[in-house]
Amino acid sequence: MDELEFLKQDWKRQEADLPVVSTDSLYTMIHKRSSSLMKWLLYVSIFEFVLWTVLNFLTVNTKTLESLKEIHLYEFEIGITLLQYVVLAVFIYCFYKNYKEVRTTDNTRKLMKKILNTRRTVNIYVIYNLIMVFVIGIVVFTASALYDPALQDLYVLDDDGNRHLPVQVFLVFFGSIAAFAVVIWLFYKLLYGILMRRLYGNYKKLSKLEMEE
Amino acid sequence: MDPQLEKQFVTQLEANQNIVHKICRLYTHDRESHNDLFQEITIQLFKAYPKFRGDAKFSTWMYRVALNTAITLYRKKKRSIPTTDYDNVMFKIASTEYDNTVEEQLKLMYAAIRQLNDIDKALVFLYLEDKPYSEISETLGISEVNARVKMNRVKTKLKDLLNV
């Protein structure tokens, strides 16, 4: 007889030693708050949506709008701000839809896939924001190089008599964007590494099994 | 939730709570985590209960929600350190019915099962609960053939763990 068959016989006997939770305790328990992975994902995702919206909001004030007018980017900024809100609304809708579809009554693999989909929605939103930071950065940099009086003083003349910005200015600009992206990336790696590692691992194990078929 | 439904749920859960305790024993290493996981499973079962239509047995439905919570949704509050007293009560072997050698072997087997990964534990658990492969495959979301293949691998893994 194999080991598990042998164990099966003992398995039933050990039921007598299991703890018993009283009816009253069960009533108390059902009204407690869940601290499941989904709750954490919801809180973290709401935090992310709020954070990126606040960041977008903070960058648009009267002062920045005035300076944007100076470098001919006023209409661009209004357009981008409107776009950010539309995109935010679409992402919140997608997130909510995915979140609502997560059901503990699904089979384990399906449940894991749905949670990962919910997570992916927020991931795409973050990537979208990082791309926007890069795109807006380039547009603002180009417009500033052309129209911002403060930057005009930095221009140098090369041997052929052409006026251009020194390499250091480009290095500082692209360096700052790269550093920002790396910090955000590391933050996400750490945050979701802690939150999702176990789920990713288990999902991989189940999916690998199905792929071997 | 309607109080009548709430009462119905608690009555059914009370009668079947041993299923949840067995899962907690497999997936946790100390009493505190056991209680935590038990509570989380109870909350998830309660949340899902209004959609339970009774087309399956309550216990069958429970296996799925409880295992899903243990494998996927449960977040340990802190790194749990296995405690000796919990280990001793973890799986109490009905010692009066066995001689020392058999008892020792059973202890080793339970210890080996606790070393398995989350998915393998679920397979072994459902197997020990005498669930057919069709139900095991439906619960985990893998094909029946794969459930059998995987189970054979787990048996080999357990043999290896026991022979170390």
Q: If you had to describe this structure to a student in words, what would you say it looks like?
A:
The complex is a heterodimer of chains A (213) and B (164). Chain A has 213 residues and is mostly helical. Chain A has one domain (34-211). Chain A has eight helices and two strands, in the order H-H-H-H-H-H-H-E-E-H. In chain A, strands 1-2 form a two-stranded antiparallel sheet. In chain A, helix 3 (37-59) packs parallel to helix 6, helix 5 runs antiparallel to helix 6 and helix 6 (108-147) runs antiparallel to helix 8 (167-211). Chain B has 164 residues and is mainly α. Chain B has helices at 3-27, 31-48, 58-73, 84-90, 100-114, 118-128, 133-140, 144-163. The longest helix of chain B is centred in the first third of the chain and has 25 residues, at 3-27. Chain B starts with a helix and ends with a helix.
Number of contiguous helices of chain B = 8
Helix content percent band of chain A: over 70%
| Biggest beta-sheet profile of chain A | 2 strands, antiparallel
> What is the helical fraction of chain B, as a range of percent?
over 70%
Uncertain residue segments of chain A? none
- Would you count the extended β strands of chain A for me? 2
**Could you give me the name of the CATH homologous superfamily of the largest domain in chain B?**
RNA polymerase sigma factor, region 2, helix turn helix motif
State the end-to-end CA separation of chain B. Answer: 52 Å
Work out the count of structural domains of chain A. Answer: 1
- Secondary-structure-based class of chain B equals mainly alpha
Question: How many helices of chain A in DSSP terms?
Answer: 8
